[in-house]
Design brief:
heterodimer; A: 12 strands; about 55% helix; B: Rossmann fold
Chain lengths: ~425, ~210
């Protein structure tokens, strides 16, 4: 027998009250846990994907859309930019690295991205098997993409126009899988990567139809460009979707955006700025939900307080008898506070399990293939705070009842009965 | 064992009650007699340290109670005084055996199962040890209350109107048990009562 066992026995004697308080607090804490887990994982994913990217240049339109489309691969392109402009930009001395992206096609909702090997290098992608694409219509799959599609080296498929399922199928030109990447925790995982020429081939065919002149090119017709793309004759009708830029120095951040935005159809977008803006917008919703959760937690605390306070009326004799058996005032104070702490601890544990369960369920429902997937099987150091907070809530809720117990006039209570 | 001298007590807004000087020797049993409202319970509470005396001397088991305060007084009470009330006042959420363990724990004594078994056996409630309090009859509950009072082998067992609500048969049963248990544990028994049935049983008496 000790105070914890004693308090626990009183809690067991109040099953319905305990259930109500545990659930109430559990729900409040579960909401906080869900918000914490999801926002941490989403932000982590965003940060990793935007890492080292100072600017994305796309066609005129929403800068946020440019970022969402070209870094996180969740929105649609704003349009295309002339390759000539991209070459011009990549030759500016303020730019350390420029990676071209050509989007527009997908296969079973997984995006096909035309780019060069620098894109893989930027995210630190490593090959699991096979090789990176080297010729037209060769693709290398991200780890997750390979798993979702169930494809391996040597498999072929036809791309579909657009980013969603049911797009027009580009028949006649089959892609061939030549390599698969290791998981990297970045956007690479869920992409199909090819060279830019492959994306052009798909669309030239569409636009120019049967009339396209398939004459043989010779190497001396090649146009020099910093992206390593094979371009014959002229640049005029060549377009890409965007250009991912790394600055050479801090001056670039000052000078480049103005320079880019002044040039024709180009639009500069800063990942850091746009993400801050997005989180700001989403943040209002998160704040509302969070406020609601704190309200529930507050009500739970109040409910624990009321339950304890009411139970003291029935327990006046118990408390007085305990004093008559040698318990000090302090012991009764601790006894009541422990009771509050045990109830809120149960609530905390319930919320913890519930929160992780819900996040895991969300993760399972959105599917592994989603660009931003979440799991309930990670634990954050911030969650320790939840344990501390739930204990503290128990102490606060039990404080007034405990002081009442401390002050019990035992002689008066015992004389009555 | 118990000695009072020049003791008086006054509730706020009430008349002061003066108690006659009185002494009980170790192992002796005695009654505190008097009608309702004459201060029997108050005296018992003063002797048990449940009330703080305002004036006069008060010694229990060789210790001057006014010199003790707070947690020390509580600890002294837990080890040296066993209290019994008109109703059993057991802790309802606990089993019989846990009620007794609680008495040892709160008196800061080691939790001794042999001692608990012995007392349960002496009061013939061994087979109820695992039962919840509310499953017991009134008489069984009263026996558990007595077991709890004598468990820590106190120097004094104090009972406040232990027989008031009982019929003759049960009143004498309780009285027998109280005397027997006090003797077995070498404790003095002090009973505050207005119950005329008890008067003839215990000769040492303090009339208020």
């Amino acid at each position: 027998m000790n105070l914890i066992v004693l308090s626990w026995n009183y809690i067991k004697g109040q099953k319905l009250n305990t259930l109500l308080n545990t659930l109430l607090l559990g729900f409040g804490i579960a909401i906080i846990v869900v918000l914490l887990l999801v926002s941490t994982q989403v932000q982590d994913k965003f940060t990793r994907n935007a890492q080292g990217i100072d600017m994305v240049v796309g066609a005129k339109g929403s800068p946020l859309q440019i970022i969402l489309c070209n870094i996180f691969h969740i929105d649609f392109p704003t349009g295309n930019i002339p390759l000539e402009d991209a070459i011009w930009l990549s030759r500016q001395r303020l730019i350390a690295e420029a990676i071209p992206l050509a989007l527009g096609d997908s296969y079973r909702t997984i995006r096909i991205v035309g780019t060069n090997h620098k894109y893989v290098g930027h995210y630190g992608g490593k090959l699991a098997e096979g090789k990176l694409w080297s010729g037209d219509l060769q693709v290398t799959l991200g780890a997750q993409a390979a798993m979702t599609l169930g494809m391996g080296i040597g498999d072929t498929f036809s791309g579909e126009h657009g980013m969603s399922e049911g797009g027009h199928v580009h028949e006649g030109h089959d892609y061939e899988v030549v390599g698969i990447l290791q998981p990297s925790g970045t956007a690479l995982d869920n992409l199909i990567l090819s060279n830019i020429e492959s994306v052009w081939i798909m669309h030239e065919e569409e636009e120019e139809g049967e009339d396209h002149d398939h004459h043989a090119h010779t190497d001396d017709e090649l146009i020099d460009n910093p992206f390593g793309i094979k371009i014959y004759h002229d640049l005029e009708d060549k377009e890409i979707t965007s250009l991912i830029l790394k600055y050479r120095g801090p001056m670039a951040a000052v000078q480049l955006p103005r320079m880019i935005n002044a040039r024709g159809n180009l639009q500069a977008a800063s990942p850091a700025f746009e993400m801050a803006r997005l989180l700001n917008i989403v943040g209002i919703g998160v704040d509302v939900v969070q406020g609601f959760a704190y309200l529930i937690i507050f009500i739970a605390g109040l409910s624990v307080f009321i339950a304890l306070y009411n139970s003291l009326k029935e327990r006046r004799y118990d408390l007085a008898i305990m004093r008559s058996m040698g318990a000090s005032r302090m012991k009764l104070l601790v006894h009541i506070i422990l009771e509050g702490m045990i109830i809120t601890f149960l609530g905390g544990v319930t919320g913890f399990i519930l929160g992780h369960g819900v996040v895991e369920l969300i993760g399972m429902m959105t599917g592994e293939g989603a660009q931003v997937s979440v799991t309930g099987r990670i634990f954050l150091s911030e969650e320790l705070l939840i344990i501390v907070v739930s204990f503290a809530l128990g102490v606060v809720a039990a404080l007034i009842p405990a002081i009442t117990a401390y002050r019990t006039d035992i002689s008066k209570v015992l004389a009555k009965g | 064992m118990v000695r009072i001298q020049g003791l008086s007590y006054q509730y706020p807004g009430a008349q002061q009650v003066n108690y006659p000087d009185w002494e009980v020797t170790q192992g002796d049993h005695s009654l505190i007699l008097g009608g309702s409202g004459c201060g029997k319970t108050t005296l018992l509470h003063l002797l048990a340290g449940l009330l703080k005396s305002q004036q006069g001397e008060l010694t229990v088991a060789g210790t001057s109670l006014p010199s003790l305060g707070g947690a020390k007084l509580d600890a002294f009470r837990g080890r040296n005084i066993g209290l019994i009330f008109q109703k059993p006042h057991l802790i309802n959420t606990l089993s019989v055996i846990d009620n007794l363990k609680l008495a040892q724990y709160l008196a800061q004594l080691p939790q001794d199962h042999n001692r608990i078994d012995h007392v349960l056996g002496a009061l013939d409630i061994t087979e109820k040890s695992k039962s919840k309090v509310f499953e017991l009859s009134q008489g069984q509950q009263q026996r558990v209350a007595i077991a709890r009072a004598v468990l820590n082998q106190p120097k004094v067992v104090m009972a406040d109107e232990p027989t008031a609500s009982l019929d003759d048969q049960n009143a004498f049963n309780v009285l027998d048990t109280l005397e027997e248990q006090a003797n077995d544990n070498k404790a003095s028994l002090i009973i505050a009562t207005h119950d005329q049935r008890i008067k003839d049983r215990i000769k040492t008496q303090l009339e208020l």
